[in-house]
Specification:
The chain has one domain. Helices cover 27% and strands 23% of the residues. It contains six helices and eleven strands. Strands 4-6-8-9-10-11 form a six-stranded mixed beta sheet. A three-stranded antiparallel beta sheet has the order 1-3-2, with no helix packed on it. A two-stranded parallel ribbon has the order 5-7. The radius of gyration is 17 Å and the shape is globular. The two termini are 30 Å apart.
Length: 208
């Protein structure tokens, strides 16, 4: 779960000046509130690492001007929020147009972000509600919600619940969702040649 640390609203500038601190913990800014992110489980990190590795391999193979950074904030254009996605694909050539890049390693333009991925944990509402709305408002072309443990609400992943990858693609300024489960081959506009099934992602690439 996430934990709100204070009741006083803070600005983005105040947030980046103070966090991360020297505790090694992870924080995000949600509508002016500093939120401590829960320590991820090993399974969560297996899925994140597997996706980052597979997408990085595709970036290299296709010679795309992209890379996956370690710690870059995504800031919506309006409001006082800033997020650390589980996997963030950066379009390097557009970074010259990002006013917050040099000092705060922060991006806020859709042209800088061809793909963002959130791997669901106990704070699933953030992924399905808040971040979905904010990423759509930024205009990020593609957003994946990887619910490998079927944690989200039934209205998002079905009844009975089942592990689901929801891929939201921006069409006429609005996200349209396609879902993948089991042996379904993932269909991505950002990485059209990515050869992965949903189950491979859920199992984090391990066989047996």
């Amino acid at each position: 779960m996430t934990q709100t640390l204070q009741k006083k609203l803070v600005t983005f500038d105040e947030f980046v000046a103070k966090y991360p601190d020297n505790t090694g913990k992870r924080y995000e800014l949600h509508d002016g509130f500093v939120v401590e992110m829960a320590q991820p489980t090993g399974d969560h990190e297996d899925v994140v690492g597997f996706l980052a590795l597979e997408i990085s391999a595709d970036i290299k193979r296709l010679n795309l001007p992209y890379y996956i950074p370690k710690t870059v904030l995504v800031k919506p254009l309006e409001g006082e929020s800033a997020y650390y996605p589980d996997v963030l694909v950066i379009n390097r050539p557009n970074l010259v147009n990002e006013p917050l890049w040099k000092k705060e390693s922060t991006v806020s333009q859709a042209a800088s972000i061809p793909l963002v991925i959130e791997v669901v944990s106990t704070n699933w509402r953030d992924d399905y509600y808040k971040k979905l709305a904010d990423y759509e408002a930024i205009g990020i072309p593609e957003y994946w919600i990887v619910d490998y443990a079927a944690i989200g609400a039934r209205k998002f992943i079905g009844n009975p619940k089942q592990p689901t990858i929801s891929i939201y693609q921006l069409i006429d300024g609005e996200y349209q969702v396609t879902q993948f489960r089991g042996s379904d081959r993932i269909q991505s506009l950002a990485f059209s040649e990515l050869n992965l099934t949903a189950e491979q992602v859920f199992q984090a690439g391990y066989v047996g």
